[in-house]
Specification:
- A two-stranded antiparallel sheet has the order 1-2.
- Helix content is 25%, strand content 37%.
- The protein is α+β, with helices and mostly antiparallel strands.
- It contains one helix and four strands; from the N terminus they run ββαββ.
- The protein has one domain.
């Protein structure tokens, strides 16, 4: 179901609240592109642990579609 509405943002139009929706596929594409950019900029260091190489990045934010 990647094309169904998945993540909504409330917007106010004409004095009423409505939602703008992003599909699961659109969100996945945004996340993948953003993560590749973070790695290319060197913002996600590699860590050696348990005999493997890991990469972690944490983002703390309010609940907004821009950070999901």
């Amino acid at each position: 179901m990647p094309q169904h509405p998945w993540l909504g943002t409330r917007v106010t139009t004409d004095a009423k609240d409505e939602y703008e929706w992003v599909t699961l596929q659109e969100c996945s594409d945004i996340v993948e592109n953003l993560s590749h950019g973070f790695i290319a900029l060197g913002l996600v260091p590699q860590i050696e642990a348990e005999g493997e190489t890991w990469q972690f990045m944490g983002i703390q934010s309010k609940n907004r579609k821009e950070w999901v």
